[in-house]
Design brief:
It is a single chain. This protein is α+β, with helices and mostly antiparallel strands. It has six helices and ten strands. The strands form two sheets. Strands 8-1-2-9-10 form a five-stranded antiparallel sheet. Helix 2 packs across helix 3, helix 4 packs antiparallel against helix 5 and helix 5 packs across helix 6. It is globular and about 50 Å long.
Length: 252
């Protein structure tokens, strides 16, 4: 029982003397060990991006994806343990479908995010289960107002609404870059954001880590305001330009 938890980390229902639940904190560490994922609100939509580590050179491109559709106008990018994250994705899809069947309209993103938070929090309250080792960023564009929104749901069950944010290994550096991006371009469009998110992911990538595949999706006019993966050629062009800019910055 040696270690940080000193015996208080054996069960999710046990508090340490200083009021901490170590199992939940360890779930957060699982998120921090995965590739960086970002989601940002733009003037005309939402852009998602993920740094997906390539576990093998033989891995087929597109396998083990980290960006998922929830319904036509909402998507989700995940970080942490992928099997856990898939359960959250399935829960989100189920909640959205049930709401549509009951009320004949799309589920408001605020309600969906809160329900996901309640679901994840429930897994921190019982000794027979463990917390989800993942965090998710959910983005939505209202089909009528075209207003974008981004929410983060953490392993604790806490839900936050952001203009733009990041989760994963390089989240702090990525958040700093996102803040700089908004400071320089407060009215940035999704088209312009492609280069910026590619630049952010490549900049925060740790050279000691494995090679990675960049996944990008968006919800904007170019996708008819439906969640869709950005065409492969567009992603490649954005990556090439991002690398060129970063190399130029290093030389300076």
């Amino acid at each position: 029982m040696a270690g940080t938890g000193a015996g208080y980390d054996l069960d999710v229902t046990t508090y340490s003397p200083d009021g901490r639940v170590f199992q939940v904190e360890y779930a957060g560490k699982a998120v921090e060990n995965s590739g960086t994922s970002v989601a940002i609100c733009c003037k005309d939509g939402v852009v998602f991006a993920s740094e997906k580590f390539l576990l093998s050179k033989m891995l087929v491109k597109g396998t083990s994806k980290r960006i998922f559709p929830i319904h036509r106008h909402a998507g989700m990018v995940v970080a942490g343990m992928l099997p856990d994250a898939r359960q959250i994705v399935n829960r989100a899809r189920s909640e959205a479908t049930q709401y549509m069947n009951a009320y004949n309209e799309e589920m408001p993103p605020e309600i969906l995010a809160e329900r996901l938070g309640l679901f994840m929090h429930a897994y921190t309250c019982y000794g027979s289960v463990r917390p989800f080792g993942c965090a998710v960023l959910m983005g939505n564009v209202d089909k009528d107002t075209k207003k974008p929104s981004v929410f983060c749901v953490e392993p604790t069950g806490m839900t936050f609404k952001y203009v733009g944010t990041a989760v994963g290994k390089g989240k702090q550096a990525a958040k700093t870059e996102i803040e700089k991006m908004y400071a320089n371009s407060p009215e940035i469009t999704c088209e312009q954001a492609l280069l910026q998110v590619a630049k952010i992911i490549h900049k925060v990538h740790d050279e000691k880590d494995k090679d990675f595949e960049l996944e990008i999706s968006w919800i904007c006019a170019a996708s008819n305001y439906q969640h869709a993966l950005v065409p492969a050629q567009r992603v490649k062009d954005a990556e090439d330009e991002a690398k060129r800019i970063l190399e130029a910055e290093q030389e300076d």
